[in-house]
Design brief:
The chain is mostly helical. The chain is built from 9 helices and 3 strands. About 16% of the residues have low confidence. This is RNase III domain-containing protein.
Length: 247
């Protein structure tokens, strides 16, 4: 995941402006190493790369300054929800990926120059100008995410099970993208402190939470400039237990 931008330094500078002091006092980075064996609960997976993979978890320590917590909240960073990036071949790349994702969700960094909310607004104007309610816009967003999610998972299942039959392929994909599967995965991620950047925490309402995950996929697709490979790397590592994609 080569990049000329040092996202760790970019995030450090942004948080330093918010905190007014060294952000290392408040921000903690920890790393998770992928198991070489897939979870038996994942029906889609038959085998995985034996290469090492890591992802970076970002946690905000106790912040007593209400001004800081309010400013982070306004930027969309909930201090009570740990965040994590996608699987990467090294800890260094994992940290860069997590910082890059946080910068995108906070609005800026990596040369984006615009907030996620602004880009969503532009997309809404260009693709949903005929719609008359926020509910309609959200449903279209979820449809976009669902379409991307299904294509990503079809390609993923074929990559690990190239000789799978059409029927088994359909069942494997459904086991990942169904409303029940998305809601279960979202709850599991929040319980384990592994909620991906930009994915909202569960609300407790099944349909609403499944829609939120589909919208999250659409968000990732957009901020990744509609690049299917980078979108797949993030989405698969978040929604399939034990799975990761190397560049």
């Amino acid at each position: 995941m080569a990049s000329s931008v040092d996202f760790v330094s970019e995030l450090h500078r942004k948080l330093q402006r918010i905190f007014g002091t060294n952000p290392d006092v408040y921000v903690q980075f920890t790393y998770e190493e992928a198991s070489s064996t897939a979870s038996s609960s994942s029906s889609a997976a038959a085998s995985f790369s034996q290469q090492p993979a890591f992802r970076c978890h970002v946690t905000l320590k106790q912040i007593d300054d209400e001004r800081i917590t309010q400013q982070l909240s306004q930027l969309g960073w909930r201090t009570d929800v740990p965040l994590c990036g996608a699987w990467c071949p090294s800890k260094k790349e994992a940290k860069q990926d997590a910082c890059r994702s946080i910068l995108l969700s906070l609005g800026g960094g990596g040369g984006t120059g615009e907030s996620l909310q602004q880009s969503h607004g532009a997309a809404s104007v260009s693709t949903t100008s005929a719609l008359h309610s926020s509910h309609d816009i959200r449903q279209v967003r979820a449809m976009q995410g669902d379409a991307v999610l299904r294509l990503v998972m079809v390609n993923y299942v074929l990559s690990v099970r190239p000789n799978i039959s059409p029927g088994d392929l359909a069942n494997a994909v459904t086991s990942i993208v169904s409303n029940e599967a998305l809601v279960k995965r979202q709850r599991d991620l929040i319980d384990r402190g592994m909620l991906p950047v930009m994915m909202p925490p569960p609300s407790g309402h099944k349909h609403q939470d499944a829609t939120a995950v589909e919208c999250w996929v659409a968000d990732i697709f957009e901020v990744e400039n509609m690049d299917m490979k980078s979108t797949a790397r993030i989405v698969v590592s978040a929604l399939v237990e034990g799975a990761y994609i190397h560049d």
